[in-house]
Amino acid sequence: MEKFLEFKDVSYFYQTKESEIHALDRLSFDIGSCEFASLVGPSGCGKTTILSLVAGLLSASEGEILLDGKKIEKNDSRIGYMFQRDQLFEWRTIWQNITLGLEIQKKKKDEKMLALCEELLKKYDLYNFKNKKPRQLSGGMRQRVALIRTLALQPQLLLLDEPFSALDFQTRLKVCDDVFEIIKNEKKTALLVTHDISEALSMSDKVIILSSRPASVKEVMKLNFEGSTPLKKREDKDFGKNFDKIWRNLT
Question: pTM (2 decimals)?
Fold first, then answer.
């Protein structure tokens, strides 16, 4: 598979009042085009720091990060970021929330991009709610709106920072299926940060296991579970064995 996102010997240091902290140590991994990958590792190992580096919010102290063979720039339009909470504005309608990015980028009159927003709403069963306010939607629907808002700007890579952590378990399982389906249908590359091993396994083509800080790659697990959805993949006979393997790596 062709490499799309590449980390090449990336290290990151940051300063505190007392000392210099070594957060990442010669981190190397890659993600292929349209591949779904997850980062798992001990708490505080630097997973969100990695997302911030990919998003261009931080700069690597050493090494190189490439997206489709090119260096990542600050506010890189090729990258979309989905946060832990949906970050919907309660005073705006669903349509106004979804087109917020277009508004900020002064593309609110771009007919092709507006047509894409409508198409995504229809495709993922939200069109009838376009004039509703976020508080009128379920938690799962809100997450779909947040993802569509990100997709409206047509990013090539999606960064998912524990986007399901605020949901109850039952809703979380359903939303994982929904988000997975949308990302695969839209042929996007995705990098998920999660503390949930089962979530990482069920959604991913590969899981990148990190060491404790300073984080380095302990192992990259390539997965090939039976089942077309995350929920179905959890039923695969090898799911438990892979869960145990990651668990042992993290303890």
Answer: 0.91
Asked if pLDDT for residue 227 goes beyond 80, the answer is yes
Confidence of residue 1 (pLDDT cuts 50, 70, 90): low
114 assigned to some structural domain: yes
Quote the crossing angle between the two packed helices 139-151 and 169-185, to the nearest 10°.
20
| Domain total in the chain | 2
Within a domain: 83: no
Of the residues 100, 121, 154, which one is the last residue of a structural domain? Answer: 154
Asked if 141 contacts 126 with a C-beta cutoff of 8 angstroms, the reply is: yes
In this predicted model, what pLDDT tens digit does every residue of 48-61 receive, in sequence order? Answer: 999 999 998 899 99
What is the extent of the structural domain holding 179? 3-78+155-250
> Are the beta carbons of 66 and 156 closer than 8 angstroms?
no
Asked whether 173 and 203 are in contact (CB, 8 A), the reply is no
